[in-house]
TrEMBL record:
Keyword Mitochondrion assigned: no
GO molecular function: N-acylneuraminate cytidylyltransferase activity
UniProt keyword terms in alphabetical order: Nucleotidyltransferase, Transferase
Keyword presence, Nucleotidyltransferase: yes
Protein name, entry field: N-acylneuraminate cytidylyltransferase
Superkingdom of origin: Bacteria
Cross-referenced Pfam families: CTP_transf_3 (PF02348)
């Protein structure tokens, strides 16, 4: 069976209650739950949460919230891998025979069912531990710089100052939508960004991490545009 796990704790700080805050007419988490069901590849969709209100919203949207995540996995320092491993272990203890586990973020309103399907196909087509969404950086990271305390700037890679942008290596970053993985990879806490993982590359215009109020506002502006493109 294929299992979808949506991590959604109640104590988000920068955007309070962001997992169930209304976004484009629905609680944020509902966009992820609906995309998971639309993909048609999941036998079970569960939400890992420590919060009864989140659990109720998730249940009303068709997901399960069959347990409450323990406190040590619900604070600001809990890692995604540990949370998914906990839920995977719970499912296996219930006797579920799991072939693949997808961690789908609750704040991924741009996620598409077709991408979820493509991620599973990619995971299964080779000996991969993980397949996750990624996209290109908008600007070359090798031309990046930081502002010094006294006000001047300093390049991170000054050796690349004279190189043309098109001659620099391509750099990718996590798109923050979903992570397919084999159950043993989650349970053994294997490295996500390593040689046993394959990225599913998304266009930059369909990617928006939502951690701050500015991220939220930008996502609200992008949502109708992305939806129109999806319908074309």
């Amino acid at each position: 069976m294929n299992l979808c796990i949506i991590p959604a704790r109640g104590g988000s700080k920068r955007i309070p209650r962001k997992n169930i805050k209304e976004f484009a007419g629905k609680p944020m988490i509902v966009w992820s739950i609906e995309a998971a069901w639309e993909s048609g590849v999941f036998d079970q969709i569960i939400v890992s949460t420590d919060d009864d209100e989140i659990a109720a919203v998730a249940s009303s949207a068709g997901a399960q919230a069959p347990f409450r995540r323990p406190g040590y996995l619900s604070d600001d320092h809990a890692g995604t891998t540990e949370v998914i491993a906990h839920a995977t272990n719970w499912a296996q203890n219930k006797g579920w025979r799991i072939d693949a586990v997808c961690c789908l973020y609750a704040t991924a309103p741009f996620v598409r069912a077709a991408d979820i399907n493509a991620g599973l196909e990619t995971l299964l087509e080779g000996h991969w531990d993980f397949c996750f969404t990624a996209t290109e950086f908008a600007s070359p990271i090798f031309r990046a710089f930081t502002q010094r305390q006294e006000g001047g700037v300093e390049m991170f890679f000054p050796e690349h100052f004279k190189e043309r942008s098109q001659d620099l290596p391509e750099a990718l970053h996590d798109a923050g939508q979903f992570y397919w993985g084999r159950p043993e990879a989650w349970l053994q806490h294997r490295i996500m960004f390593g040689p046993k993982s394959k990225p599913l590359i998304l266009p930059r215009w369909r990617v928006q991490d939502i951690d701050t109020e500015d991220d939220w506002k930008r996502a609200e502006l992008l949502k109708p545009v992305i939806d129109r493109q999806h319908d074309i």
